[in-house]
Amino acid sequence: MPPAATACQGHNLPDKVAVPQRGILYNTGYYASRPRVPDPIDITILSRRTFLASAAAAAALHPYFARAEDAGPHALAPSQKFKDDYERLVGSATPIEGKVTVDLPETAENGNFVPMTIAADSPMTDADYIKAIHILSTENPHAHVATFFLTPVNAVARVQTRIRLAKTQNVVVLAEQSDGRMLISTTLVKVTIGGCGI
Amino acid sequence: MAANPRIKLPDTAKPGEVIEIKTLVTHVMETGNRRDKTGKPIPRNIIHTFVAKFEGKEVFRAELGPGISANPYIAFCMRVPGPGAFEVAWTDDQGVTTTATAPLKLV
What we know:
- The structure holds two protein chains of two kinds.
- In chain A, the strands form two sheets. In chain A, strands 1, 3, 5, 6, 8 and 9 form a six-stranded mixed sheet that branches. In chain A, strands 2-4-7 form a three-stranded antiparallel sheet, with no helix packed on it.
- Chain A contains five helices and nine strands, in the order H-H-H-H-H-E-E-E-E-E-E-E-E-E.
- Chain A is α+β, with helices and mostly antiparallel strands.
- The radius of gyration of chain A is 27 Å and the shape is elongated.
- By secondary structure, chain B is mostly beta strands.
- Chain B has one domain: Immunoglobulins (Immunoglobulin-like, Sandwich).
- In chain B, strand 3 and strand 4 form a beta hairpin.
- At the A-B interface, strand 6 and strand 7 of A face strand 2, strand 4 and strand 5 of B.
- Strand 7 of chain A pairs antiparallel with strand 5 (73-79) of chain B, so a sheet runs across the interface.
């Protein structure tokens, strides 16, 4: 995020504006503690052109206008609980991306009820299989959503369930192979109405 | 306490075929983070363990947290080893274990 503070003030007001002197009543007692409303003269100085320029600058730079999709999947701040759980599961290893497919809605209208399907690319033989699938949420009050334990009997590393999401966040799925290596998939889900009291 | 456990299997299956087992149970999955009208915290009551067995042998297990929706739905796959029946058990924080069995019909 570029520094927005200085650029937002780009409405080209002259240094000194002729503000009428306020009467003594306004500088004492009740009125002294009130925030000063700009006098009408301040507003009339803003021409249409400078107003539009400043509004565009504010829209482009103010954090309020920053949208989640502009920030990318890793820009949302994960909770400390997520970091602890992730650290506990993955440790210092680097998980492999691209071998786990997670099917989640792009936008979940109801955060109490978000269907998800997880499929890991694995032969599921005795020598090479997925032994566990962990679901972690980056911003739920409890980061650990569920863990599924699989065996070669399952033949296909595919699991379906329904989860709760408190707000717009990334859902991280970790699949643990029988050789100890981790597969990872991160999915951003936009939540319209958060799961209540998760 | 869990109620109305359901197991959905394919109508028929062949030995060696990979089938999907769908399970559903009615349970509040109370997270423990909510408060009642008087402000008292509602104690946590979730199904924390799900175990599926086929002919007495464990084939699938899940540890669930408060982030699983109410009335937990879990589906998984299995290669049919032969004739038998599924036994599925859900255990919640009150120590109640709800079980269901479903026979698998082979062609």
